[in-house]
Amino acid sequence: MLRHLTAGESHGKYLAGILEGFPAGVKITRAYIAAQLQRRRLAPGRSARQARETDAFEILSGMDGDITTGAPIGLLIGNTSRALPLPSSLPRPGHADLAGMLKYDTLNASLIRERASARETAMRTALGSFAMRLNQLLGIAVNSRVIAIGGVYGLTAAGMAEDLARARREGDTLGGEFELTMENVPAGLGSSVQADRRLGARLGAALLGVNGVKGFEIGGGFMLAALGGKAAARDPELSGGLDGGMTNGRSLIMRCAVKPVPGLPGGAVSTDLKSFRKKLSISKTSDTTAVFAAAVVAEHAASLELASALLEKFGGDSLKELRPRVKEWRRKTGRILSRV
């Protein structure tokens, strides 16, 4: 199985990450990782800070040139913006501030905000790049698309840009929804024998762990609640590629709802925890929307979980071991699935 950890603060010197259990023999270039980080950093709706960040990274271990060695992969991403925020006893509504201040017994919301910030997802994206590359080499394609902004579906690119520009002018932020698709996934990943081994539960945990994600569904999701069993059975795509916690050979289809960014340029009323007076909490550095960037992060978070499930199913400490096992399994199960 794969394990990963991240460390670092939004305005600290570095973000750090470790990916352990990744097989040897996988070729991944620095340009590939940089391209994934750029997709996240330059997604529509981002704040001016993203233009200042470069996401320059350093690979500390686990690589011999462009090839993984099987040792733990260590990464550092430097922060360009290192101006630590001033101490503040004013929690930002909708952010981690209040809950974190209570949990860690501090009156400084800035300390909570530094780690809870979505800046951490730069490292999750970098680590997820390795998993995405492994999945690609095994024939699995991962894609995402934004399907709604501010509750409006079917928007064109121009329409979305117009909505974002209007929200920015009004000092507001917008939520939205995105869809994530993983194609050509082998059948039989995950398990039904224990709740924590169900792949749907694991993917749900990974995607609900992306900052701002407040809703998650697989396949037909909540729509299935309104259908009868006969209607649901007529459309196997409604399963979203999972049955009983296991992949069934169809594409994995997931959707997530992302809340509006809680830091409002126009300000939101909060309570100062020192004076208990009402004050306006204003953010001048927040994104207008996080949904586009969250979709990119979700691709990488889901790729980590799927790659872990692949390694659990097929084993092997190198791509050379893993690839023929996956190929033979596809051949074996494909004969059955083609007749179902």
Please supply descriptive tags for the structure shown above.
15 strands; 340 residues; Chorismate synthase, AroC fold; alpha+beta; globular; four-stranded antiparallel beta sheet; 10 helices; single chain; 35% helix
Task: Give structural notes.
The structure is a single chain. The protein has 340 residues and is an alpha+beta fold. The chain has one domain (3-337): Chorismate synthase, AroC fold. The protein is 35% helix and 21% strand. It is built from ten helices and 15 strands. The chain has helices at residues 30-41, 49-52, 97-103, 109-116, 121-137, 157-169, 199-208, 229-233, 291-314, 319-337; strands spanning 3-8, 14-20, 57-61, 63-64, 67-68, 73-78, 141-149, 152-153, 176-183, 213-218, 242-243, 246-247, 252-258, 268-271, 278-281. A five-stranded antiparallel β-sheet has the order 8-7-9-13-10. A hairpin with a 2-residue loop joins strand 7 and strand 8 (152-153). Helix 1 packs across helix 5 (121-137), helix 3 crosses helix 4 and helix 7 (199-208) runs antiparallel to helix 9 (291-314). It is globular. The two termini are 31 Å apart. The mean pLDDT is 95.
